[in-house]
Amino acid sequence: MQLSLGPLLYYWSREDVFAFYQSMARTSVDIVYLGETVCSRRHELRLKDWLDIGYLLRDKGKEVVFSTQVLLESTAEVGQMHKLVANGDFLVEANDMGAVNALANAQPFVAGPHLNLYNADSLNWMAQLGAFRWVMPLEMPGDELVAMLARTAAPLQTEVFAYGRMPLAFSARCFTARHYNRPKDDCGFACLEHPDGQLLSTRESQHFLVLNGTQTQSARIHNLIAEVPELSTLGVEVLRLSPQSRNMEQVIEAFDMARNDVHESRAASELLTTAMHDSACNGYWHARPGMDLQVPAP
Predict the structure, then answer these.
(1) How far is CA 79 from CA 69, 102, 289, in A?
(2) C or N: which end of the chain has fewer Cβ atoms within 10 Å?
């Protein structure tokens, strides 16, 4: 079982992004997804910068994959997607059907989580187009994954989002800019002030959602570390960990312990708990509301 580091979903300064990936190069993560997937106005890094980070990580033995933006709204954004597809050095994760069309029958690719592949026919179709790996939709329960894989003939690697705030929705509107009463095209890059997104609470002070520009995330952190043995038994080959601004090395260390030794699962869970900056949830995996937490029997 491999560990992957998902694409950075937040807007950080150029210096912070380079420092983050230099530290990630020293961890046990096997696969790193790079690139801007949320908002094309985030210009701290240009494509050349992302490629330089890709070369750095590849030199350290990591598999590097570039992720395309999820919601494409302009000709410029489509052009940027085609530049990623044509980068010539690294694999690409397709996060919308435009990217799939650009990659189909041309090069192997990863079918990203935002393609919403919920049945075996769709999965087999992706494989025919050239996908070698797919990422399960966040909301899919474990039982449905089992049934879907049983009906899938294609030899695809399965990747599961195992840790991080869940990217639940994308919008043409920017909620962070709206919070500051600014137009989207003149937002002042307010996302830079929120390295882990902007927490939204209910009137009862319960953490509910996180605003991250055009993306809405869960406030609670999706955490499947207790389910790692089950995921391994099901044939899941890659666990995706989503970046956070603090303690990411500790998160990777905890999942590394969990995947290598089932007897260390309790220690791994305790280590992970100290690295989390909000409460955990795993409801979707257990066919429950996503913000629920199902605690395994001792």
Answers:
(1) 11, 11, 38
(2) C
* Residue from 139, 102, 101, 98 nearest 117 by CA: 139
Residue appearing with tokens 């995706």: 240
- pLDDT value at 76 more than 90: yes
Q: Which tokens sit at 220?
A: 């609670």
CA atoms within 13 A on the CB side of 183: 2
**CA–CA dist 225, 259 (Å, integer):** 9
Q: Is residue 152 over pLDDT 90?
A: no
Span 162-205, pLDDT tens digits:
999 999 999 999 999 999 999 998 999 999 999 999 999 999 99
Contacts of 246 (CB under 8 A, 6+ apart): 275, 277
Q: What is the structure's pLDDT at 297?
A: 66
Tokens representing residue 122 in the block: 């769709």
Length of the chain: 298
Reduce the DSSP state of residue 149 to 3 states and report it: helix
> What's the CA dihedral at 245, 251, 252, 255 to 10 degrees?
-150
Question: What span, in angstroms and rounded, lies between the C-alpha atoms of 84 and 80?
Answer: 6
Largest CA distance in the chain: 54
Q: Distance between CA atoms of 146 and 247, rounded to whole angstroms?
A: 32
What is the spatial distance between Cα 241 and Cα 43, in angstroms, rounded to a whole number? Answer: 24
Q: How far is CA 80 from the centre of its chain?
A: 20
Q: Which residues contact 218 (CB under 8 A, 6 or more apart)?
A: 165, 166, 168, 209, 210, 281, 290, 291
3-state secondary structure of 256: helix
Q: Is 87 exposed, middle or buried (0-12, 13-18, 19+ CB in 10 A)?
A: middle
Q: In this structure, what is the dihedral angle of CA atoms 65, 68, 69, 70, given to the nearest 10 degrees? A: -100
CB 8 within 8 A of CB 21: no
